[in-house]
């Protein structure tokens, strides 16, 4: 009986660890400077590895300060058939991307350029809170 209990606990731990590593999918766009003022930090400069969160992840402002690892997974249009650079970027949410936002996450131009060709404008992504 004790063996089964240990095995079940171990399985539960492994499953919960695996689910926290799984990425969510969405789309990313980018915005250009100036990056201040922002909804989270006002006129405070938070650097350039930043993002604005859409309603999908905004969580009534609770997203402020959250960090996400973002990876390009492919194009959303015919314009740039292979926009991805094969890298990931970690960004901090500093702003809100209001209704009508074209992506799940709106990256700074600098962050977008690390993972994809800016000419694509909008890309498919996987993202994970870190």
TrEMBL record:
Keywords: Secreted, Signal. One of its GO terms (biological process) is systemic acquired resistance. It is found in: Secreted. InterPro entries: EGC1/2 (IPR044206), Expansin/allergen_DPBB_dom (IPR007112), RlpA-like_DPBB (IPR009009), RlpA-like_sf (IPR036908). The keyword Lipid metabolism does not apply. One of its GO terms (cellular component) is apoplast. Residues 1-23 form the signal peptide. SUPFAM superfamilies: Barwin-like endoglucanases. The keyword Cell membrane does not apply. Residues 25-130 form the Expansin-like EG45 domain. PANTHER family: EG45-LIKE DOMAIN CONTAINING PROTEIN 1-RELATED. This is EG45-like domain containing protein.
């Amino acid at each position: 009986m004790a063996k089964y209990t240990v095995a079940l606990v171990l399985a539960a731990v492994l499953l919960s660890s695996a689910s926290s590593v799984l990425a969510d999918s969405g789309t990313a766009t980018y915005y250009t400077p100036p990056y201040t003022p922002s909804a989270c930090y006002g006129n405070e400069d938070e650097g350039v590895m930043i993002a604005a969160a859409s309603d999908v992840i905004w969580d009534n402002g609770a997203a402020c300060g959250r960090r996400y690892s973002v990876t390009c997974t492919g194009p959303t249009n015919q314009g740039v058939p292979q926009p991805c650079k094969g890298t990931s970027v970690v960004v901090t949410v500093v702003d809100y991307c209001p209704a009508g936002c074209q992506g799940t996450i709106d990256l700074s131009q600098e962050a977008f350029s690390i993972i994809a060709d800016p000419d694509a404008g909008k890309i498919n992504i996987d993202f994970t809170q870190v």
